[in-house]
Amino acid sequence: METVKNILSILGMIGMPSLGCILGWLIKKVQTDKKIREQEIESREKEIVVLKKGVQAMLRSQMITEYNKWHEDRCYAPIWVKDNFENIWIQYETLGENGVMNKIHDKFMSLPTEFSNKNK
Hints:
single chain
């Protein structure tokens, strides 16, 4: 209660014109701060999109490398390699569009898990 009295006393001393100036300044400050926060959020959202695309590109590159190594060169893929490929695939797919990688994933996962002369 004492605080309210002090505030009212101060307001009475500075007068209404000063109060209007102070309120105008406060409103402008709040609006400026809000605009700055919105710009920061927009900037962070753009950074997140760029980072997601970059990570997705690296995962795609890794899967293509593994595909070429095991499918094209060796014609089989051990279970641990398939497990690793599937884990990469899940993370890649979670990031969004995957296009041609569906076919590569399916072909890779259909490889036999053991080497055989029949594989070549």
